[in-house]
Amino acid sequence: MLTFTDYESHYFEEVFSLYKENTQYFLLSGGQEATLEDVHADLNTRPEGVAPWQHHYILIHFQEELVGVLVYVDDYPTVNTIYIGLLLLSPRIQGQGIGSFIMQQLKEELAPGYKFRLSVLAENTQALQFWKHHDFKKVDEKPFTLHAKTQQSFILEFQK
């Protein structure tokens, strides 16, 4: 059974281990393996003008094991938009339908008139395929910079 809980500090080491498991993602996005600073940034960095209550860092457990994190921001960049900053799943469970199950649940809870928005690196073909499979559509392209590595990203949206 999947459970979703708000982040608590005693999970920090487990979260960092999850980040370290995702070597391929971090090499692709930032050109280096995950660091403690990556975890701190995802936990604490908010876009300009975003209040603390709008920023959410959710732990995803499967049978009591931490298998993923979901970072999202309410009403960003516009009202009625939920911006998904990160959906990071353990490589051990990828390809087993858990990500699809998570998206199905999130879509069911999305209120009418709301939409999801996210950014995917153009080179991250696995993620692009996942989001397109879940009916996200490309609406824009923008540069993305992490750890001094700049690359092209696609802005995708889903609306009920």
From TrEMBL:
- A Pfam cross-reference name: Acetyltransf_1
MF GO annotations: acyltransferase activity, transferring groups other than amino-acyl groups
As given in the record, the signal peptide range reads none
Q: What SUPFAM superfamilies does this protein's entry cite?
A: Acyl-CoA N-acyltransferases (Nat)
Which residue numbers delimit the N-acetyltransferase domain? 2-160
Domain of life of the organism in this record? Answer: Bacteria
Q: What is this protein called?
A: N-acetyltransferase domain-containing protein
Species: Candidatus Kurthia intestinigallinarum
